[in-house]
Amino acid sequence: MSTYAQKKGFGATVWDYLTTVDHKKIAILYLIAGGLFFLIGGLEAVFIRIQLAVPNNDFVSAGAFNEIITMHGTTMIFLAAMPLLFAFMNAVMPLQIGARDVAFPFVNALGFWLFFFGGIFLNLSWFLGGAPDAGWTSYASLAIHSKGHGVDFYVLGLQISGFGTLMGGINFLVTIINMRAPGMTYMRMPLFTWSTFVASAMILFAFPPLTVGLTLMMFDRLFGANFFEVAMGGNTIIWEHLFWVFGHPEVYILILPAFGIFSEIFSTFSRKRLFGYSSMVFATVLIGFLGFMVWAHHMFTTGLGPVANAIFAVATMAIGVPTGIKIFNWLFTMWGGSVKFTTPMYYAFGFIPSFVCGGVTGVMVATAAADYQYHDTYFVVAHFHYVIVGGVVLALLAGTHYWWPKMFGTMLNETLGKITFWLFFIGFHLTFFIQHFLGLWGMPRRVFTFLPGQGFDAANMVSSVGAAFMSAGVILLLLNIVVTQVKNVKVGNDPWEDGRTLEWAIPSPPPFYNFKQLPLVRGLDALWLEKMEGKKGMTPAEPLGDIHMPNASFIPFMISLGLFIAAFGAMYHVNDKPWAIPVLILGLAVTFGSMLVRSLKDDHGFHIHKEELQDEKGAEA
Amino acid sequence: MQAEEKLTYETWPASPEKSTLEAKNKFLGFWLFLGGETVLFASLFATYLSLKDKVPDSTHHLAKDIFSVPLTLVATMLLLTSSLTSVYAMYHMKNFAFKKMMIWLGITVLLGFGFLGLEIYEFNHYVHEYGHTFTSSAFASAFYTLVGFHGAHVCFGLGWILALMIRNYKRGLNLYNAPKFYVASLYWHFIDVVWVFIFTVVYLMGMVG
Amino acid sequence: MKRLANWRLVSLFAMLALALSGCSGKPFVSALRPAGEVADIQYDLMKLSTYIMVGVIIIVMVIFIIVFFRFRRKDDRIPKQVEGSHTLEIIWTVIPILLLLILAVPTVSATFKLADVKEMDKKDSDALVIKVRSHLYWWDFEYEKQKIVTSQDLVVPTDEKVYFDLKSLDVKHSFWIPAVGGKLDTNTDNINKFWLVFDDKKANEAGNLFYGKCAELCGPSHALMDFKVKAISRDQFDAWVSNMKAVKEPEKAQTDVAAQGQEIFNKSCIGCHAVTPDVKPEAARVAPNLTNFGERARVAGILEHNKEELKNWIKNPETYKPGNEMTGKYPDMTDEQLDALAEYLMGLKVQD
C-alpha cells in the first residue's frame, strides 16, 4: 500500500486528487476551487464598479446588474471566503494540534466535493438562462417573484454546498476534541485552532436554519408550497429571520478564523507569545456566542417594533467589547516585541486600521434609530466590505503568504508580495472609504445606476478607480504564485525562522502521515518552547510504530455528483420536461447508492509499517 | 484496540461504541450532528408555529378541525415503544449478545414500520377528507414539511438499521460495527424525541386550537 | 507614510462632502443635511457615535504608530515573553463598555420615540395619516381622512407630524426620504407605521422639494423607483387638498389637440390610470393616479418633466424602467397620437 513515494503521471495525479482523503491535499483542492471562485466573484465586482463609474451608464443592463451583484455576494461568501478559510483550516489545524489527519478523512473529502459541485451548479446558471437576481439575501417576496430559474440555482446550489460546509464543521470539531497530541490541552492550542473550533461550532448551529430556509424556498418555487405566498397565508418575514439567524453567525464564521490567522502572524513575527492568550480565547468564544443573539439588527427597518430593535441594538453593541479586547491584545503582542516586516506582517499591520474602521461603523449601524438612515445604503456596503475585505480577505492573503511554504514547500516572492499588499490595500481604501459618504448622501445599495445631479458622480468614480488597484494586486499575486512554482526552490521545516507552533516542526510540505511520531506538547507555542531550550524539534511522545491511515475513495465524488444531477431534475420539473423526474431519481439513486456502498463495504484503512518509516528521510518529529 | 480484532464475551469492552479512536470520533461526531439536527427541527417548529392556521379563506380546515388524537396517540405509542426496544438491543450489544440484539432491533424496525404506516394513512386521510394538501395553504405546507421531515427521518432510520442488520447478519459483533449499531440507535432515539415534540406542539396544542 | 496619505484622503473627502451638500436652493437628498425632527434625531445619534468612534480610532492609531516605529526588529534578540496584564485588560474591557452605554441610552430612547405612532391609532385624532402603497417601481399615496389619492409626488404640510402607513402590493420595497428621516420597509405581509416631520425652513431652502427613494432591492428598476416630496405650509396644503377634492370627474381638455389626447387616453389608458383622486380599493389602483400629472416634478419619477420625455416614456417605457408593469399594456402609438396624449396629460392640473 505504500505508493506515496512514487513519481506520478498527470492522469494519476488527477485521480489522486479526485480520490484523496488526505487533509493536506483537500486543503489544496479548497485553495484552488476557492481561489477560482474568488477570481469569478472579483470579476463580478469589477463589472459592478465599471457600471457604476459614471451616472446613467449602460455597460450592463439593469437585469444583468442584479444578477451580477447577487452572484458577487453569494460567490464571495459561500464559494470563496469560506472555502479559502477551510483550505487553511484543513492544511494547518491538524498540524497545529499534532494530529495525523482529521477525525473523518472520508467526510472531509465529501465536504469538499459537495461544496465544489454546489458552486459549479450555482455558476452554471450564467449559461442556463440567467443567474439568480434577488440579492445574496434573496428576500422571499422578490425571490418568489423572480422569473426563470436563477433563484432555483441559488437555492439548490447553496443547499448542496451548505451540506458540505456543515460536514466540515462537525469534522473539525471532533478532530480538535479527540485528536490533540499528548500534552496539547485546550489552553495550549494555537489561536487559529481555537478560532477554527469556535467557527465550526457556529457552522453546526447556524447552517441548519439556512438549510430550512432554502428548503422552504425550494418547496415554494418548485413544488407549489405556500410558505411565502401571502395570499395563501404565507409570510415572507420567516425567510428574513431564517436567513439572518444563519447570516449573522456566518459573518463571525468568516471573521473568527481570520482573527486566528492574524493572531498567529502577530505573535510569530513579533517573536512574542500572544498577549493575553486566555482573554483572546475567551473573547473568541464570547463573540461566537453573542453572534447568535444579534441577527435581527439586519432587520431594523422590517418593522419588528421598538422593543426588539432596542434589544438587538444593545446586544449588537456588546459584541464591540470582545472585539476591542482582541485589537488591543494584538497591539500589545507587538509592544515590546521584535517586529519583522514580512509580507504576512504587512497584511496584519494593514488589517488593524482597516478592521477598526469596519468595527466602529459596525457599532454605528447597531445604533438602531440611526440605522434607519444607514440601512440598505452604501454606508452598509462600505461597512461590511471594511469588515470582510479589511478583515477576512486581508487574512486570506496574509495566510496565503504565511502558510504557502508549509502547503507547497516553496516561498512566495517577498518583494512581489509587498507590492501586492500596497496595491490591494490602497485600492481597498480607495474603493470603500468613500462609499460611507455615498450612503449618507442618499445612495441606496444595489442600484444598477444613478441619475446625475445628486452629488454621487465624483465619489463613484473614485470608488471605481480603487477597484482597478485591487484587481492589479490580485493579478500580481497570481503572477507571484506562477513564478514561485516555476522556480520551485524548496524550503525547510521552519522557513520564517520564527515559527512557534507545531506545523513548523515538520517538513514543508509535510509527509502524508504528518508526524512520524506524535509530538509531546509542553506548553503554549510548543515548538518555540523547544527552540528556546536549544532543541531542534519536538520530543516524541511515542516510540516509532505502525501508523494507521485511511484509504483513498472515489465515493465522496460520486455522492456529490448524484446530488448535482438530482438538482437539475428538481429544477426542470416545473417546466414539465419529461426527463426531469427520471433525472431527479437517477441523481438521488447515485447519491444513496454510493452511500450504501460506503456503508456496506468495510474500509479499515491501511498501516504504514515501522520499517518503511525508518527509511523515510527528513521526517524527524 | 484494533477495529478488526475477533473478540469474545470476555474480551468485549464495556463501552464497545467508543473503544477505538474511530469509534470515539464517530460517537462524538454523531452527537454533534444531532445538535445540528435539533436546530434544524427547531427552525421547522418555529416556521410551523408562525404559519399554524394561516389559510387563504374560511373554506379551509384549521388544526382543530382535522387532527385526531386517538390515531396519533397510537403512533406515539408505537414510536415510544420502538425507542425502548432499541435500548434493549443496545443493552445486548454491550453484552456481546448478537442474536438478542438482532431480535430487538428487528422488533424496533417492525414498530417503526407500523408508525410509518399510520402516518401514511393519516396524511392520506387529511388529503381526501379535508382537501388538506401540501399546496392548499401555508398552514398545510408547514404541517407537511415539519411532520414530513420527521417521517423522512423515520424512513432513513429504518433503511439504515435494516442495512446494518443485513450486512452484519452473518458475521456477528466486532469493534468495527458496534459503533455503527450504536449511532443508528442514537439516531432512532433522536427521531423519537422529535416526535414527542411534534405530538405536543402539532397535535395536542392543535386540538386546543 | 501611508497613515499620512490616509489622513489626507479623509480631509479631502470631508471637504468634498461639504461642497456637495452645501449648494442651497436644490432639492435635498443627503442624510447629512437633516430637514426634520426625525432626521435631526438620527443625525445627532450619528454625530455622537462618530465622536466616540473617532476617539477609539485615535487611541488605537496612537498605539499602532508607536508599535510601528519603536519595535521594529533591529537585532536578533529574543524579546521578553509577556503573558498579559490584568490591569490593561480590565481597562480595555471596562472603558468600551462605558462608551457603549453612553451610546446605548440615547439609541434606545430614540428608537422608542421614532416608533411612537399612538396618535394615528386614536379614534378621533386629527393627525395626518398617509397610506403609502408601493408597487413595482412606483408609489401610491392615499390621504385617508381627506379621501384623496395621488401618486409619485407626495404632498405634505411642513412643521407637523405626518404619519405613514406602509404596505407593498407586490414585492418588498422600502420607503426612504434621506433628508427627512430614516426608512421603513413596505412589507407584503403587514402594515408598518412611522412618522416624519418636514421642517419648514429647510424645505424652503430646498425649494420645497425632497428626494425619496426605494431602498430595498425589488427588481431590475429598483434604482429608478424614485419619488418626490413637495413639502408646503399647512395653508398651501389645505388649499391643495381642496383643489384635489374639487376634481369630481376628469378635467376637460383645454385645447383641440388635448381633447384628441383625452380621447386616446380614455380608449387606451384609463383602464389602469385614474384621473380623478377618489379612493378606489387598493388592489384596483394598478397604475399611478394622474389627476395632477401636469404639476409633477418628474415623468415616471425619473425623467425631466416635459412633453418630449413624456412621449419617449409612453413610446417605450422598457428602455427607461426595465421590468415595469406598463410595457405592452396598450397599443403602439403614432407620433401624432403621442403629441395629443402628452398635450392632454401635461394639462392635468388642479392648482390654478
UniProtKB/TrEMBL annotation, chain A:
Pathway listed: Energy metabolism; oxidative phosphorylation
Keywords (A to Z) from UniProt: Cell membrane, Copper, Electron transport, Heme, Iron, Membrane, Metal-binding, Respiratory chain, Translocase, Transmembrane, Transmembrane helix, Transport
Subcellular location: Cell membrane; Membrane
Top-level taxon in the UniProt lineage: Bacteria
Enzyme class (EC, first level): translocase
Transmembrane segments: 27-48, 68-92, 104-128, 153-179, 191-219, 242-262, 274-295, 307-332, 344-366, 378-398, 419-441, 461-483, 554-573, 579-597
Pfam families named in the record: COX1
Membrane topology recorded in Swiss-Prot or TrEMBL: Multi-pass membrane protein
Catalytic activity line of the entry: 4 Fe(II)-[cytochrome c] + O2 + 8 H(+)(in) = 4 Fe(III)-[cytochrome c] + 2 H2O + 4 H(+)(out)
Main location per the UniProt record: membrane
Name by which UniProt lists this protein: Cytochrome c oxidase subunit 1
TrEMBL record, chain B:
Gene3D superfamilies hit by this protein: Cytochrome c oxidase, subunit III, four-helix bundle
Similarity annotation: Belongs to the cytochrome c oxidase subunit 3 family.
Keywords for the protein's UniProt record, in alphabetical order: Cell membrane, Membrane, Transmembrane, Transmembrane helix
Domain Heme-copper oxidase subunit III family profile: 1-207
Source taxon at top rank: Bacteria
Main location: membrane
Transmembrane segments: 28-51, 71-91, 103-121, 141-166, 186-206
Official protein name in the record: Cytochrome c oxidase subunit 3
Cell location: Cell membrane
Alphabetized Pfam families for the sequence: COX3 (PF00510)
Automatic annotation (TrEMBL), chain C:
Enzyme Commission number(s) of this protein: 7.1.1.9
Residue ranges of domain Cytochrome oxidase subunit II copper A binding in the record: 125-243
Record's cofactor remark: Binds a copper A center.
Alphabetized InterPro entries for the sequence: CcO_II, CcO_II-like_C, Copper_CuA, Cupredoxin, Cyt_c-like_dom, Cyt_c-like_dom_sf, Cyt_c_oxidase_su2, Cyt_c_oxidase_su2_TM_dom
Membrane topology of the entry: Multi-pass membrane protein
Cofactor: Cu cation
Keywords: Copper, Electron transport, Heme, Iron, Membrane, Metal-binding, Respiratory chain, Translocase, Transmembrane, Transmembrane helix, Transport
Pfam families in alphabetical order: COX2, COX2_TM, Cytochrom_C
Reactions catalysed, as given in the entry: 4 Fe(II)-[cytochrome c] + O2 + 8 H(+)(in) = 4 Fe(III)-[cytochrome c] + 2 H2O + 4 H(+)(out)
Keyword Membrane: yes
Subcellular location field: Cell membrane; Membrane
Domain Cytochrome oxidase subunit II transmembrane region profile residue range list: 23-118
SUPFAM superfamilies cross-referenced by the UniProt entry: Cupredoxins (SSF49503), Cytochrome c (SSF46626), Cytochrome c oxidase subunit II-like, transmembrane region (SSF81464)
Functional description taken from the UniProt entry: Subunits I and II form the functional core of the enzyme complex. Electrons originating in cytochrome c are transferred via heme a and Cu(A) to the binuclear center formed by heme a3 and Cu(B).
Family note: Belongs to the cytochrome c oxidase subunit 2 family.
Protein known as: Cytochrome c oxidase subunit 2
Lineage of the species this protein comes from: Bacteria, Bacillati, Bacillota, Bacilli, Bacillales
Gene: ctaC
